[in-house]
Design a protein that fits this description.
CATH architecture of the largest domain: 3-Layer(aba) Sandwich
Radius of gyration: 22 Å
Distance between the termini: 34 Å
Largest sheet: 7 strands, mixed
Shape: elongated
CATH class of the largest domain: Alpha Beta
Helix content: 25-40%
Number of helices: 9
Mean pLDDT: 93
Order of helices and strands: EHEHEHHEHEEHEHEHEEHEEE
Number of domains: 2
């Protein structure tokens, strides 16, 4: 049994790591599956969709429970041989074909007709119980049942649309992804700024808290979170001096035009030294690549293109 993820190809590195974290939880970096054409296939022993409710992804479009695969030229015969009565169990269904390269030997309607021939009377175009996904990638066709589809309105939570914006706030879908990559139910952001990470963590059902050295940032974070009915615990604090005990720290290090690499490196090292007393996991965003201080193991290094003069670096760290 396996899950198929249709990934956000603009943020492929983060999307792959997030999908693995959703399926495998902490320890996901031990799995080395790679995507093909924006599609990632991951083995799984469970076909339930509870994990997608617990950790709804930010950088995937869809997740499918794969029930069969075949060379794309054998799609018709493979679909016709499947026991649709047992698979669908009297549920109504809708068929959707994903074939970005236009290499499928069958159209979406033809795929539906193959199923109707062996399981008539249950197709429903308006309100189906189940969506049957056929995904063609290269020479392979995957047939499965849709488990989850992206429904979050991330674009509506972009920084300029919040009550209090901050120019360095990351895209909400990326914020959601790094929360999921931490695999933690309780997270703390010690450089919370205007609260973008806290917002996504709270909306994903995490117990989130935050801190910042500037009280004006905490005021912005409160206003942004309260717009969505969230009220995380916030306090003024220096992250090199005070951090709470928490399952994971998830944060984006402060940066700006006047941020010097040397100063950021010193802050990063001092922050991680203090974090070692508070948690075993840190997922952190940085505007430049920095060496990892002793006491921490780099589990994954992910990048995200921001603009021509900046590529963000995300580290998933575990305490030794």
């Amino acid at each position: 049994m396996s899950f198929l993820f249709l990934l956000n190809q603009k943020e492929l590195e983060l999307a792959v790591c997030e999908a693995k974290a959703v399926v495998f939880k902490w320890g996901w970096w031990r799995h080395h599956e790679r995507p093909t054409g924006g599609v990632l296939l991951l083995p799984s022993e469970r076909a339930r969709d509870t994990r997608f409710r617990d950790a709804p992804p930010g950088l995937s479009h869809r997740a499918v429970n794969v029930i069969a695969s075949c060379p794309r030229g054998n799609l018709r015969t493979t679909m016709a041989a499947l026991p649709w009565h047992r698979i669908l169990k009297k549920k109504t269904y809708l068929v959707r074909l994903t074939d970005d390269a236009k290499t499928s030997p069958l159209s979406e309607r033809e795929c539906a007709n193959v199923i109707i021939a062996s399981y008539p009377g249950h197709a429903d175009l308006d309100a189906p119980n189940t969506i049957i996904d056929i995904v063609v990638v290269g020479d392979t066709a995957y047939i499965g049942l849709r488990l989850w589809e992206q429904s979050e309105r991330f674009e509506g939570r972009r920084a300029h649309l919040l009550p209090q914006m901050h120019p360095s706030m990351m895209h909400p879908a990326i914020a959601r992804a790094i929360v999921n990559i931490s695999c933690a139910r309780k997270v703390h952001d010690p450089f919370c700024g205007a609260g973008g990470l806290l917002l996504e963590a709270g909306l994903a059902g995490r117990h989130a808290s935050g801190a910042d050295i500037e009280s004006s940032m905490l005021t912005k974070a409160r206003q942004n979170c309260s717009k969505f009915g969230l009220h995380p615990l916030l306090r003024i604090a220096d992250a090199t001096v005070w951090l709470p005990r928490t399952q994971a720290i998830v944060t984006d290090m402060p940066y700006g035009k006047n941020t010097k690499p040397v100063a950021l490196s010193v802050l990063f090292e001092a922050f991680l030294h203090r974090a070692a007393q508070s948690t075993r996991r840190v997922v952190v965003g940085l505007p430049i690549a920095l060496p990892i201080p002793s006491g921490w193991v780099l589990r994954a290094h992910m990048t995200s293109y921001v603009h021509k003069s900046m590529t963000k670096h995300f580290y998933a760290l575990e305490r030794e």
